[in-house]
Protein: Nucleoside-diphosphate-sugar epimerase
Amino acid sequence: MHTSAAGSDPSSGAVARRRIAVLGPRGQIGRVVVRELLAQGAEVVTVSRSATPPAGVFAHRAVGADAPEALGRALRDCSSVIVAVGLPYRAAVWEREWVPLMQTIVAAASDHDIPLTVLDNLYAYGRASGPISEAQPLAPCSRKGDARRAGAAVLEHARAWGADIVLCRAADFLGPGAETTVLPWSTITRILARRGGRFNWFGPPEYRHSFALPGDVARGLITVCSHPRLRAAPAVHLPAIAPFSGDELAAQLARAAGGPVSARVLSRGLLAVAGLFSSAAREQLEMRYQFASNYVIDDSVFRGLVPGEPRRELSDIIALARPGR
Structure:
């Protein structure tokens, strides 16, 4: 595995002394984006409803993303905006709020001709018959996927009218700090600390699934923010960990833990019953299709333009979770 974060990225250092706004600076990815921008010497402007600024930023502006004029004023002196906002993981909330949120952000940035780099997931693609590339048509098969496709249409419309917008799609998060995801990091660290245990897997454990390390996602967003060739396309896939199956995860965790590890397979029926008592289970039920076959992201466009990007294997991720690290 390559260990250099920046590698031979031609845009490495390109954000130094630039004033870059981060929307959603306290989320799973937003807080990592802030940290990485600061490490690269950017002047970071964070924008959120919270009145408390993250440590070390150039400025913090307490503005809700539902107020386009106020948001526009908060962004007007920034050279670029990275959008890492999220909503509660409920389909009804996404259906109601995601499109208006994208419309507000686009309107605020367009008023000042500020480029947008927007984080998204893979839900709009729906089912996959092979590796998912940027060329795959959007064909969502879930309510949350429909909401994401509708939000993407807002960005595509603005781009058609000349706005500088790139949509960056990432696989499910796996790594330090990622908890609201299908494989919470605390589950992995607990298995290693207790020398064995079980983790949830949402389909047959022989199928492979793509995940992404939060740090790689954050650095990928920053790279897209300043990389002209990556900005030439309307959408790009951010770098992912090499895909793995539930069986492979169990085997590697067992070797690392020195004890038995197994996947707890959550069938559709089990999730449906759990959904009677748990809103999280209800929301996950419609996304189970992603584990019913191989669900693998193709990140070759990004890697072709950023040849120094680290290639993470499952073993690298497990090493991050070892006790004492």
Notes: Residues 44 and 57 are 5 Å apart (CA to CA).
